Amino acid sequence: VNSGEGYNAAALAGLGIIQVPRLGVRQALAAGTLVEVLPQLAAEPMPVTLLYAQRRHLPHRVTAFMDWVAGVIQPELLRAD
After folding, report:
1. pTM to 2 decimals?
2. How far is residue 32's CA from residue 26's CA, in Å, rounded to a whole number?
3. Could you say which DSSP state residue 57 is in?
4. Which of 6, 20, 61, 80 is 20 to 30 A removed from 42 (C-alpha atoms)?
5. Computed over its alpha carbons, how large is the radius of gyration of the chain?
6. Residue 10, class by beta-carbon neighbours within 10 Å (0-12 exposed, 13-18 middle, 19+ buried)?
7. H-only helix segments in 1-81
8. What is the pLDDT of residues 57-67, one digit of tens each?
9. Around Cβ 11, how many Cβ atoms within 10 Å?
10. What is the rounded distance in angstroms from the CA atom of residue 53 to the CA atom of residue 13?
11. Taking Cα atoms as reference points, which of 18, 58, 15 lies closest to residue 37?
């Protein structure tokens, strides 16, 4: 598939096993519509990188976006499973 939504939909339809970040399927796992298999083969965590042009003075919109992304992602990463 070429989209995360399609990937998740295929798993929810029972079409196979997927490997995705827990963040994207947390609700389905909690509801029991997806079940974790092979937890001993979990993938290594992947870094999240934000690339931007290096400048002496970053535009406010770039720093605002970086702060927003950090605010959205960090609580999810700290949440206990």
Report:
1. 0.63
2. 10
3. S
4. 6
5. 17
6. middle
7. 4-12, 22-31, 60-78
8. 888 998 899 99
9. 19
10. 42
11. 18
Q: Please give the Cα distance from 36 to 26 (Å, whole number).
A: 10
Give 12's pLDDT tier (boundaries 50, 70, 90). Answer: very high
Do residues 73 and 48 lie in contact, with contact meaning Cβ atoms separated by under 8 Å?
yes
Q: How confident is the model at residue 11 (pLDDT cuts 50, 70, 90)?
A: very high
Residue among 80, 81, 77 nearest 36 (CA)? 81
- How many whole angstroms separate alpha carbon 38 and alpha carbon 55? 45
Structure tokens at 35: 């079940």
The C-alpha atoms of residue 71 and residue 58 are separated, in whole angstroms, by 19
23, 29 Cβ separation under 8 angstroms: no
**Cα separation, 61 vs 72, whole angstroms:** 16
Contacting residues for 2 by C-beta, under 8 A, at least 6 apart: none
